[in-house]
Amino acid sequence: MSTREPDNQSGLLQGTLDLLILQTVALGPVHGHAIARSIESRSREVLQVGHGSLYPALQRLIKDGLIAAEDGTSENNRKARFYRLTKKGHRRLFAETSRWHRLSEAIGRVLTPLAEESK
Amino acid sequence: MIWWKKRGERLKDEIEAHIDIETQENIEAGMRPEEARHAAMKKFGNVVLARERSREIWGWLWGERLWQDIRYALRGLRRNPGFATVALLSLMLGIGASVALFSVVYGILIAPYPYAKPNEIWAPAVLGPNDPLRGWHRYTRREFLEIQKLPAFSNAMATEVHQVLMTGDTSTESFYGVFLTGGAFNFIGVKPLLGRTIQPYDIRAGGKPNPVVVLTYGLWRRQFNGDAHALGETLILDGVPHTVIGVMPSRFGWWTNEAFWLPMPMDLSDETPINAIMRLSPGIKKEVAEQQLNELNMHLAQVNPREFPKGQLHTVLLNYMDITQAGGPMKSSLNLLLAAVGLLLLIACVNVANLQLARMTSRSREIAMRMAIGAGRGRLVRQLLTESALLSVVGGALGVLFSFAVVQAIVVLIPSDNVPNEARITINGYVLLFSLAISMLTGIVFGLVPALRSSHPDLADALKDGGSGAGGSIRGQATRSGLVVVEIALSVILLTGASLAIRSFIDLLRTDPGFQPEKTLTMRLALQPDRYPTLEQRNAFDRAVLENIANLPGVQAAAIGNGGMPYSGWESSYTLEGQPRFDGRKVVLSLISSDYLRTLGIPLKRGRTFTSAEVENGMHLALINESAARLWPAGTDPTNRRMQVDALGQPLRSPVLLAPGIGPEVTIIGVIGDTKNDGLRDATLPAVYLPYTFVAPPDRQLAVRTFGEPLGILNAVRQKIHEMDKGLALGRPMTIDEMLGHETEQPRFNMAIFSGFAALGLTLAAIGIYCVISYNVTQRVHEIGVRMALGASRDDILKWVLRAALRVAAIGLFIGLCGSVALEKLVQFNVFGAANFDAVSSAAIIIVLFSVALLAGWLPARRAGKLDPVTSLRHEA
Question: What domains can you pick out in chain A, each with its CATH number?
Fold first, then answer.
């Protein structure tokens, strides 16, 4: 297999990109470029999606049956692949979102006292 | 493949669309078009990597990559046909030879018998205080029953072979029938092909056997055309109708593969020794069994001392596998061969390793380049591994094909007398697996080592070096030269083996047998004992046969030579008149007719030979050979002296008849030349020749010397004998040359096979030398250019390259010769007989090897000499 480190320029946690894609795709059929754009703008440019790593992630989600792809035409008349969430994807998105909330809350609780002490 | 390609295409389109959209947005944001595209590309990152990783998700990539690697490897091999040919040739020869040899060894040594647990069968040997181990001890029937009762043995059986006449409607045939104790087939544990085997109830109370017979596959095919209705048919054996109860499978040949098995008559007064073998009771150690048997032997020796050695007895159990043909002279030569083939395989592997090393070194720039543009190390190793695995799989396949040819050749060459009846020499499944394992292992090991080494070179250095710069890689070259030295040394060892085998074969051919073997035919004449019940009838008939045959046109002389034919005879202890008696010394007895010397071409050294009247009247006279004459003190003329031959005074086993009034005392009338009577290699045993009329066995050995081609008179002889007695069986006629041929089969086999292997080894070594030298020349084109520019002539360059080849050859030769001498000390090369490693053989080896090295070095050297200095100076990339 390839020996290159997975490019993590975006600083995203492993697996987080999948969750973000699922959330973005849940809003309606959308193509790859728009997914990247949407994640960036909705995170107020904090989360930079490595465009190169977007496509492997999309393929992985298709393979797992969480999203489906169909051909379509982009807003500027370009042929593109549009992605939408499947039923399984909906279930996964729901489970992952609540898990994420629990997790970030927990991490937040752990980090808070430390932040106070350091003041 | 189509649909995953489609997926790839789609992905490519999609990524392009992505970049287009990004570009479009950038333009809308105010960038210039090229700038916009560039920014979009930059943002996206490595497109190829993204695509590859996306495809990886679908798991098809390994297949795709493998296919890619294989295609790449094939392309590389096509581009470099020399390398491919040489590597495949090496693998083919090495693997082919080892598969073939392993098949033969498996067939003859490892699993020669279809019997149940053949390695758990034991045969007894009984030794006196100072006796060397010599054959197994044979017991009488009564003694066998005692052995069967010993608790140490769970099972025992006995075998006896003697001649049986089969009378058919038109002719009589003589067979060596095999007689077995009732439980023998259960002991051996092989199921019959048809019907049933001999069972204990086939030997009735009182030891009388049922008239039943089990056929060999061969006889069944011959006599009944392989018809299942043979069961229940009747064969007349020794005048008694026997019912066919079973047929054994083709791969079963207990003591015969052309006759039949009969239940053994258990007449306890019969003193004829039979061959007993046993299996140990569960949990009993061999030593315990030996001890029990030894106690029984001591007891038996008191009752019947004649068959046992004198003094304290010592009993040894011999493993059946070790003492039968599977363990005979063939075993030592096969083991040595196995070692030889190991060497050959090693040479082949060294060649392949060498080639790989050379190739990888010349590719180090390519590899560095690939790594520089982002190929992972694992990926690279896998690619290199695919190449060598492909090579070794193809080489292995070729090797298996080649091995079929080699096995065919070996089967033709192998001396049949030294191979068990049951052995089937074919390429079998185990062997194929073995070969596959070898070929894969060779590929992986010798592909992996250079792959690992070349996959982490110092990139910058490798790129700068240009892979072929003036410096070359000195370490790599040393490794390669070292490997060639190893190859040459191994070939020298093989050559030594071959030279020994050749010399011993030549020695054997030069051996003077003491008689003139050419134009002499021998055959067995078998009378039906019940039709010729008296000694007089038998002698009269045989005399008439001799007269009739001697008068046939084309016949020079005819003689009876019972035991007088080469390598046969019957031993007896003796006493020389007026000399002290030595216990345990024996002479070989032969019964001959008056024309014996003339028929076989044996010179008379002293005294005279028999007259016909003396033979016919059975006078107490004898001829002795020169070895026997030396039994007397030096300077004594043995003629007209008397000696006592003990066997003549003893009763003979029915149906052999002894003339009345024959005593053990005979007078020596002449001394004849020594003839080889114990094998061509061994010293002649002292022999005593007596008139054949002393003893009348039902079958006699006839010898006929002809003027022309001996087989040409065969029909006339047959017809004559048939006229005299239609019921008489003639054994297979054989020329004496043919008998001697059997004797040389084993050395001929050794010679042919060792020469073959040495030739293979030498070829592979030559390939190795050629590869290394020619590679070095390629590597040093620049250096050669510099030398020529500095004034070296073409001859200088030629000499310089050749010197390198010869230096490698000389070192290899030296190590190989040392190794041969050491090995000779170690294994004594005793399978080759008397021949020793000496100056002549080593000189021959040195000449052969240097010629090969010169030849292998010559081609690249000439190429180097023809180089144009200007071009070669520019050669550096």
Answer: 16-117 (1.10.10.10)
